[in-house]
Amino acid sequence: MIPCQFHNVTVILTPRTAVYKGTLGEPHLRNRRGILELAGAIRCTTGRSPFAYLRYGCYCGLGGRGWPKDRVDW
User: Fold this and answer.
1) Where, in this chain's numbering, is Ca(2+) bound (predicted)?
2) Which pLDDT score is estimated for 31?
3) DSSP string of 2-42?
4) Model pLDDT for residues 52-70, shown as the tens digit of each residue
5) Which of 33, 39, 46, 58 could form a disulfide with 50 if both were Cys (CB 3.0 to 4.6 A apart)?
6) Annotated binding site for Ca(2+): which residue ranges?
7) Which parts are annotated binding residues?
């Protein structure tokens, strides 16, 4: 089992919610997820530190064209 806790991390977050009308015209409340939830999902799924992906990414060229770097980008 992978522990999904953060230690010695200080982050300032401001909670945001969006209220919008659904297809039936009734208001719905939508919570935006934060960076801590994303970091926790990365740690629990991959077992790696979220900071391992800090400089990672597929630059697919101007306009989003190009080839993915590896299977993560597919």
Assistant:
1) 59, 61, 63
2) 67
3) ------S--------EEEEE-TTS-EEEEEPP-HHHHHHHH
4) 877 776 666 666 666 766 6
5) 39
6) 59, 61, 63
7) 59, 61, 63
Cα-based distances in Å from 3 to 6, 19, 34, 44, 65 = 9, 34, 19, 7, 38
CB 40 within 8 A of CB 2: no
Q: What is the pTM of this model?
A: 0.40
For the chain, residues with pLDDT lower than 50 are: 1-14, 17
Nearest to 50 by CA among 31, 37, 66, 62: 37
Would you say 41 and 51 are in contact if contact means Cβ atoms under 8 Å apart?
Answer: no
One-letter identity of residue 73? D
Q: Where are the domains of the chain?
A: 17-73
